[in-house]
Design goal:
Number of helices of chain A: 0
Number of strands of chain A: 11
Order of helices and strands of chain B: EEEEEEEEEEE
Helix content of chain A: under 10%
Mean pLDDT of chain B: 94
Largest sheet of chain A: 6 strands, mixed
Largest interface: A-B, 21 and 22 residues
Oligomer: heterodimer
Distance between the termini of chain B: 36 Å
């Protein structure tokens, strides 16, 4: 089945810094979604992208649907301690039947 | 709205026992998903329902796993017999519509430990 790759696997940043992470696939995706998971909880949807080239913001978060349809990017500006968690990209496969999650990027914010 | 409700939150059982996990989706949501999360395999979709009908169960690991959705407000995931390798966090999620079925709302999960 289709697989998603995320980089970096983990990152440590200082509070106030900007963060960038990305998600890639070997095949085309028609929808990209970004979720965040806090420890002990279920993932929470951050941003959904439906069109190649689309750039969407949600507060300090901005995500882009890559033009090639094989990648997506998530940026967080001016990080704060509550940004700590695991960020997942996800999307439906070409047939829209299966829904896959990437392995996640673990973000740690140092005060 | 109460969000997606899962029970129990934690379950510890012995190998060979039957385990039943329960989920109440958000009222009015047409889609319901069951996932399993482990360190080794990450988040895996097991099965999903649309309007109480199973659409794709290709992610269900084997015949020991079964899922039902008898009505729009309740679903179960059953493992019989359970094995230690089934230890994981199981999430239920629901989404509201045909146009955006992937914008899912997750429950808090059930942490299953099989000894």
């Amino acid at each position: 089945g289709q697989q998603l790759n995320q980089s970096p696997q983990s990152m440590f940043i200082q509070e106030g810094e900007d963060v960038s992470m990305n998600c890639t696939s070997s095949s085309i995706f028609n929808t990209w979604l970004w979720y965040k998971q806090d420890p002990g909880e279920g993932p929470v949807l951050l941003i959904a992208l439906y069109k190649a080239g689309e750039l969407t913001s949600n507060g300090r978060l901005t995500a882009q649907f890559g033009i090639t349809r094989k990648d997506s990017f998530l940026n967080i500006s001016a990080s704060i301690p509550s940004d700590v968690g695991i960020y997942f990209c996800a999307g439906p496969d070409n047939y829209g039947q299966n829904f896959v999650f990437g392995p996640g990027t673990r973000l740690s914010v140092l005060p | 709205d109460a969000g997606v409700i899962q029970s129990p939150r934690h379950e510890v059982t012995e190998m060979g026992q039957e385990v039943t996990l329960r989920c109440k989706p958000i009222s009015g949501h047409d889609y319901l998903f069951w996932y399993r999360q482990t360190m080794m395999r990450g988040l895996e979709l097991l099965i999903y329902f649309n309007n109480n009908v199973p659409i794709d169960d290709s992610g269900m690991p084997e015949d020991r796993f079964s899922a039902k959705m008898p009505n729009a407000s309740f679903s179960t995931l059953k493992i019989q017999p359970s094995e230690p390798r089934d230890s994981a966090v199981y999430f239920c999620a629901s989404s509201p519509s045909d146009t955006r079925p992937y914008e899912q709302y997750f429950g808090p999960g059930t942490r299953l430990t099989v000894t």
